[in-house]
C-alpha cells in the first residue's frame, strides 16, 4: 500500500484508478522518520507494554502505587524507551528517553495540551469559573497566557519581586529560629517541608496579590488557613475585589496607580474578572509545591553533604559579605547556588511525569506514526536517572551543572526539564527560581544545616507531585 512512499518529504502516496492520492502528511525532523514494517509504517499497535491487569498488579500487587516514578524506570528496562500502557479504554504512550521526549515536544503545535482534564474543566464550567494557564486549551489559552507571561517570565519584571520575597524570607528565617527544639546538643526543626509550604504560599501571594497573608505568623489568621487548605473558593475573589476597590479609590482621588502583578492585570483590562480569578488561582496552585518541596530536598541533601554546604556558604559570602542580603542581581554570580537547585530538581522533579496530547496533527516519535489526540506520558523521572546522560545518577552532585564541569560531560538539553518546554512551559518558573535562590542563600548564610541525628532516611513518594514520604527533620545551628 505504501510502496511508493517518499520518506524524505514526509509524504505517503498510493495509486488509485483516479490517480495519486495523498494519504498522510506530518511533520518530520531529522531524527523522527516513520519506520516501515513490511509496507506499512510502525504504529502504536506495534508497541509493547503491560496490559490493564498487569498495570494493576504493578500498582497494587507489587506496591508501586505510591512510587509510580520508580515504575517508570522498571518498565523502561522491560519494554524499552517507548511503550504503551492500558488503563481500561485509556491508552497511554510512555516516553522514557531524552531524544524521544524532544521529538514529542518539538512537534506539539501552536496549542499544546497537557491532558484533557475534563473533570476540572467541567467543575469550572459548573461554577461559572474561567479556565486559567493550567486547564485552558486552544486559542483562548494562548490569549490568557500571552497576557500573563510578561510580568511572570521577563527577568526585568521578575527581579522587581525580590524585595517582597526577601521580606518573606526574613520572616521565615526568624520563624525557623523560634521553631527549634533543643535537646542536649540537638537543635531540631521538625517537618521542614510543612513549614516551607507556608513560606512558599506567603511568597507567591506577596507577588500575585501584592499583600502579606500572615502564613508565617505565630498564629495564622483563620481566613488565611482556609485559603491554604482550599485555594479557589471565595477568598481569592475577595482579595482581587479588594485590590479593584483600592485602584478605583486611587483613580477617583487623582493618585498614581502603583503596584506589581495583580495591579498590572487589573488596569490592563485585557481579561474578564472570571478569567483573572481562574488564572491567579491556578498560579497559586502551581507555585507553592515547586518551591517548598525543592528547598526541602535541597536542605536535606546539603545537611548530608557538609563539604558542598561549606562551598555554598563561601560562594554566598563572597558575593554578599557581612550582613548584606542577596538580591536578584547577585544570583548571577552564584553558580553553585543555581547548581544546587538544578540538581535537586533533577533528583526530585516536582512533576515526575508530564503529559502531552498532540491534537493538531499526526506525529512520528521513535519511528512510530501516532494519530492525532494520542496521549503521551513523558517519563521525566526515568530520564533524569539515565546514567548515559547523568553519570552516577543517584548521587547528589551539583557540580555537574557548573559550566566548567559541563564541558567534560555533554548533557542532553532534554535530560532534565523540570519546568517543561516551549510555550506550555511553567508560567511561574522565574518567580519560583527567585524564591528558591533568595531563601536558600539566606538560610545557609544564617544557619549551618545538619541532618536528623536519628539517621532517618526520607524517600520520595508520588501523589501527582513528588513529595517527601515522611517528615524531613533538620538541625539549624546558628553560625
From TrEMBL:
- Which terms are listed as keywords in the entry? Heme, Iron, Metal-binding, Monooxygenase, Oxidoreductase
Q: Which cofactor does it need?
A: heme
One of this protein's Pfam families, by short name? Answer: p450
Q: Please give the Gene Ontology molecular function terms for this protein.
A: heme binding; iron ion binding; monooxygenase activity; oxidoreductase activity, acting on paired donors, with incorporation or reduction of molecular oxygen
Q: Which GO terms describe its biological process?
A: C21-steroid hormone biosynthetic process; cellular response to peptide hormone stimulus; cholesterol metabolic process; cortisol metabolic process; glucocorticoid biosynthetic process
Keyword DNA-binding part of the UniProt annotation: no
Q: SUPFAM superfamilies this protein is in?
A: Cytochrome P450
Q: Which InterPro entries match?
A: CYP11_CYP27_families, Cyt_P450, Cyt_P450_CS, Cyt_P450_E_grp-I, Cyt_P450_sf
A GO CC term attached to the entry: mitochondrial inner membrane
- What residues bind heme, as annotated? 426
Question: Where on the tree of life does the source sit, at the highest rank?
Answer: Eukaryota
Q: Where are the transmembrane segments?
A: none
**Of which family is this protein a member?**
Belongs to the cytochrome P450 family.
Give the protein's recorded name. Answer: Cytochrome P450
Q: Per the UniProt entry, what species is this protein from, by scientific name?
A: Danionella cerebrum
